[in-house]
Write a structure and sequence with these properties.
Blueprint lengths: L2 E4 L4 E5 L3 E7 L5 E8 L51 E4 L10 E9 L17 E9 L4 E10 L4 E10 L5 E13 L4 E9 L2 E9 L3 E7 L11 E6 L9 E6 L5 E7 L5 E7 L6 E3 L4 E3 L3 E6 L2 H17 L2 H4 L6 E3 L1 H4 L5 H14 L3 E4 L21 H4 L3 H10 L3 E6 L3 E3 L3 H5 L18 E3 L5 H17 L4 E4 L21 H19 L4 E4 L9 H4 L4 E3 L6 H12 L7 E6 L12 H9 L2 E5 L7 H23 L1 E4 L9 E7 L5 E8 L10 E2 L9 E4 L5 E3 H7 L1 E2 L9 E8 L1
Parallel strand pairs: 21-22, 21-30, 22-23, 23-26, 26-27, 27-28, 28-29, 29-30
Antiparallel strand pairs: 1-2, 2-3, 3-4, 5-10, 6-7, 7-8, 8-9, 9-19, 9-20, 10-17, 10-18, 11-12, 11-14, 13-16, 14-15, 15-20, 16-17, 24-25, 31-32, 32-33, 33-38, 34-37, 35-36, 35-38
The structure holds alpha-D-galactopyranose.
Length: 728
């Protein structure tokens, strides 16, 4: 049993293979967080000390005990306005205007497995999953908080969420409904968060947590390029391979907040969930609100140790079972090859070249529908533009399949151009403020996905295309942030619900399509990686990582992404040189090695390739197939530190059973008479012997891990190295 409750001490213990999480309802019913970290085998309530800190008042029933304060005790799910002055996890407005929430223990239940969530993505049950529900209640306002803990012992992950139920007889308005609150009584932390921008997503930034509040998040109606819903708290000395690290990943693709507060005594609180700004949700009597899930994990083995945990749970319990281990096709995408300028003839020419080089799928990107000659018109009109194409989509798809390739299509379902038949027929289907001109971005507006009629319309429109032609893959784009988040279908007092209802509508549409087309690969995309989150990964086994396809820029983007997400989810293509975003020239070999650390594909005009380049691409694809299982399923390690000041970056894939390892290194700054690049490998069996492919040389795992391996100096810009070791 990974979940235990000890009657005598009142302690709940949640155990995974290497971690322990403890909490306890005290004599007043306050649910105190006791501990999260390495397994201890003991009760951790001895860590709680009471003291009168002044200006930290006492609950009425304990007013004689000046040492007992909600403000100083570690809370499992903090209330609001009743004496804990730190960040609240929940805030609810009662009919009388009070915003106070005071939650006390009511009941608990433990079950095997986990019930699925309806309407939201969730972490799928594993063989050994168990669920604890602890119900807290504010009896004055009738708010119940059912704290859910799904324990994944093998993966060392605890998944939390909260179901808030109005059990009173008056309506309540939720103004904040976080998914989790984690209090760390002791310890000083650095926080790693992942900021960015279009064309440079998930840049890790590490900062010391100061006293007071630090918060990250997105109010863009999407998880965003700018701030990923994932943070890591680590001890100050933690490195890639050593030290305590805690991860907190929200499984959500809309507005989100990660708030941290270091209090008067140096304790740290982390609260995460739907962004409270602009959020409100009316709960009528008997109604419930389910928050998105949060994946918590802890590793004592540094950032790499933590990343491996997230990679594993995402690969096994988040990705749809259909695509968990299945190989993904090597694709060629038409975007950087042709942009909007194509017809079926040109696409078929691309397809013939692609087939010759060993590619497996052709993806027709933006521009095949409505009046879509450029980005001014057509979004919303998911009707094939046969005039532009010169044939029907079925004819094109049939010809592509006849060449032996699969076929994929681009959609941007949640968007509409004003210049579209859809918008002309249903202007109220777009999110716009009454009496105000809306913000326009890339000439487009956002559809109101909170409306069932909009979701239904999109479902049938997409099905019409997918039923008409054989289509194995959809690229699902989302090319602007959401502003004017006002629904013409909801009353004034419910406008605070629109942003979340929007996400529920999007998730519903994805769910319905996948029910109908279970073999479809949907690759997520949002101007590159603007919606790269565990919520989208539940539906999309891969997400286009960035619109920046420059291999040297991708080193940073893919590395940053790897802290939380496995490489098997990162859409990554070889593109042309000079690169279309930066103008940089990078050798084809290096572009191939960087794209291999992802779901591999090409994004270039194959008609522009020389014969030598085509030959090299053929070999790249063969090499990719050879290494794909190791890349997709092996343990991934970053071999260079974040701020190592190195002029190269390196990573590796190690088979779980220690039988093989692939090491890849790219020099980012070639120096005359420079130092040899050198890395120490990870994840090998120390006493085993490994042969380096292409040589007779063998090394012990211990030599490679402790002594490391160095690389020869190469001439020219951005050379890459690749080493493959097999156990002898
Ligand atoms: C976004 C995507 C690109 C491409 C274009 C098409 O920017 O990230 O890959 O699909 O849209 O308009």
């Amino acid at each position: 049993m990974s979940i235990q409750f000890h009657e005598s001490t009142g302690i709940f213990s949640l155990e995974t293979a290497h971690t322990l999480y403890q909490m306890k309802a005290d004599s007043t019913g306050v649910l105190l967080h006791l501990y999260y970290g390495k397994k201890t085998g003991g009760d951790m309530d001895y860590l709680i000390r009471l003291t009168d800190r002044g200006f930290s008042g006492n609950p009425y029933e304990l007013s004689g005990n000046r040492g007992y304060s909600l403000d100083t005790l570690p809370q499992e799910y903090s209330g609001n306005g009743v004496g804990d002055f730190r960040l609240p996890a929940v805030q609810a407005r009662s009919e009388n205007g009070s915003r106070s929430v005071d939650l006390r223990f009511k009941a608990y239940a433990v079950i095997k497995g986990r019930p699925p969530l309806s309407g939201l993505p969730f972490v799928r049950e594993a063989r050994d999953t168990e669920t604890l529900t602890v119900t807290l209640c504010d009896s004055v306002i009738g708010l119940e908080a059912q704290l859910q803990y799904h324990v994944f012992p093998t993966q060392d992950v605890i998944v939390r969420s909260v179901r808030l139920v109005n059990t009173g007889d008056r309506p309540l308005i939720l103004e904040k409904a976080a998914s989790a609150c984690v209090d760390f009584l002791y310890g000083q932390f650095d926080v790693l968060h992942f900021h960015g921008r279009h064309c440079m997503e998930r840049v890790p930034e590490r900062s010391a947590l100061p006293r007071g509040v630090m918060s990250f998040g997105s109010r863009r109606g999407m998880s965003s390029h700018h701030s990923n819903p994932f943070v890591i708290l680590c001890e100050k000395t933690a490195t890639e391979n050593a030290g305590d690290c805690y991860g907190c990943m929200l499984m959500y693709s809309g507005n989100h907040a990660e708030e941290m507060e270091v209090d008067q005594a140096g304790s740290t609180r982390l609260v995460t969930g739907i962004h409270p700004d602009g959020f409100s949700w009316t709960l009528a009597r008997g109604e419930a609100f389910q928050t998105p899930e949060v994946l918590l994990s802890y590793s004592e083995n540094g950032l790499n140790g933590l990343s491996c945990r997230y990679h594993e749970i995402i690969r096994r319990q988040v990705i749809r079972p259909r695509w968990q281990t299945a190989g993904r096709p090597v694709l060629i995408n038409s975007w950087e090859a042709a942009y909007f300028d194509f017809d079926a003839e040109k696409i078929l020419r691309f397809a013939r070249h692609a087939k010759e080089m060993g590619m497996e799928m052709l993806v027709l990107d933006d521009g095949w529908f409505g009046k879509r000659g450029d980005d001014h018109a057509g979004l919303g009109d998911w009707v094939v533009n046969e005039k532009k194409l010169g044939c029907s989509m079925r004819e094109l798809s049939d010809q592509i399949h006849a060449l032996g390739l699969q076929f994929g299509l681009w959609f941007e379902p949640e968007m509409v151009n004003e210049d579209s038949d859809l918008y002309r027929a249903h202007p109220d289907w777009a999110l716009t403020d009454p009496d105000r001109k809306p913000m326009v971005a890339r000439n487009q507006l956002v559809l109101d996905m909170s409306r069932q009629d909009v979701v239904d319309h999109l479902f049938y429109a997409l099905c019409a295309v997918l039923d008409h032609a054989k289509i194995e893959y959809v690229k699902w784009d989302f090319n602007r942030s959401v502003a004017n988040c006002y629904s013409h279908a909801l009353p004034a007092e419910r406008q605070g619900e629109v942003a979340h209802r929007f996400m529920l509508g999007t998730y519903q549409l994805l769910e319905r399509l996948l029910d109908r087309y279970p073999d479809l690969i949907i690759e997520g995309c949002s101007g590159g990686g603007g919606r790269f989150d565990a919520g989208m990964l539940y539906y999309c086994p891969q997400i286009w990582c960035s619109d920046d396809t420059d291999a040297i820029e991708r080193l940073e983007i893919q590395r940053g992404t790897s802290y939380g997400y496995p490489v098997s989810t990162m859409g990554s293509h070889v593109s042309a040189a000079p690169n279309h975003q930066t103008g940089r020239m990078v050798p084809l070999n290096t572009r191939g090695i960087v794209a291999q650390a992802g779901t591999f594909g090409y994004e270039l005009n194959p008609e522009m390739l020389s014969d030598e380049e085509k030959e090299e691409i053929k070999k790249q694809i063969e090499a990719y197939h050879r290494f794909a299982p190791l890349i997709a399923q092996g343990d991934y390690y970053r071999l260079t530190e974040l701020d190592g000041g190195k002029e190269y970056t390196a990573w590796m894939f190690a088979a779980r059973d220690g039988s093989k390892a692939l090491v890849q290194l790219v020099v980012t700054h070639t120096r005359a008479n420079g130092a040899f690049p050198h890395v120490r490998l990870q994840g090998l069996i120390p006493e085993a012997s490994y042969r380096l492919e292409g040589t007779d040389r063998t090394y012990t795992g211990a030599s490679l891990m402790y002594g490391g391996i160095s690389f020869p100096l190469k001439w020219g810009d951005y050379p890459a190295h690749q080493l493959y070791f097999t156990r002898t």
